[in-house]
Amino acid sequence: MFSICDVSLKFFSQVDLKKLVAYSTVQEMNLIYIGLLWGSKKSLIYVSIFSLTHTLLSTMFFFIIDIIYKRYYSRSIYNICGLFINYPTISLLLIFACFNYNGFPCSLKFFVEIFFFYSLFEINAISSFFLLIFLNWIGTINFTYLWFRTLFGNNSYLYNLYNLDILKKELLIFWISFYIFYQFIFFLYLIF
After folding, report:
1. Among 142, 26, 25, 28, residue whose Cα is nearest residue 77
2. Any residues with CB less than 8 A from the CB of 30 and at least 6 apart, and which?
3. Cβ neighbours of residue 89 under 8 Å, at least 6 residues apart?
4. Phi, psi of 104 (to 5 degrees)
5. Could you tell me which residues are beta bridge partners of residue 16?
6. Range of the domain at 98
7. CA 76/CA 15 separation, integer angstroms
8. Cβ 68 vs Cβ 17: under 8 Å
9. pLDDT-based confidence at residue 62 (cuts at 50, 70, 90)
10. Closest Cα to residue 33, out of 7, 60, 59, 62?
């Protein structure tokens, strides 16, 4: 629990997009570890689904960072501000990925987080409330704030930008990944 709170507070000082996604990975891995400590069969099923969700989402974020790096040759939030003006399609994909990371309703992460906090609330209400504040409020708000600052911030740097917003190959890889992500929601309904 201390590590989750520590990582949530470290989101404030991040300027590198790759480090931002890496810290969110550490935060989710700590949640998976807490789920493994319960040891029940039901928690092991949800931990495996949460691991799958984490794998798909972090891969998509790293893929988006790679797309951004190929255009700006930088991963700094200060250098990439104003991404929405220059590359609107990449920005819409990024907004879609942020919604799914935050547990948008009907996404796989939404159902896994509901189970996680409900199970933790049955064990200890104080620690559940503490994790809910530090994970969902502080951690996710900071994570999304930094991404939206990249999208909608004022850019004072001039770059030689690509003429193309997003390549067809990049768009195809992204949408195949999200299709696979939402197909696993079906498996969640099979578990219930």
Report:
1. 142
2. 1, 3, 4, 7
3. 165, 166, 171
4. -60, 140
5. 76
6. 2-156+165-191
7. 5
8. yes
9. very high
10. 7
SS3 112: helix
pLDDT of 61 strictly over 80: yes
Indicate if the alpha-carbon torsion angle 171, 65, 100, 45 is positive or negative: positive
Cα 104 to Cα 89: distance, rounded to the nearest angstrom: 20
The CA distance from 89 to 83, in Å, is: 10
Q: Rounded distance, CA 113 to CA 34, Å?
A: 12
Cα distances (Å, whole numbers) of residue 135 to 32, 51, 171: 13, 17, 30
**Tally of structural domains, the chain:** 1
pLDDT per position as a tens digit, 151-186: 888 765 555 555 567 777 777 777 777 666 666 665
Return the structure tokens found at 62.
């790293």
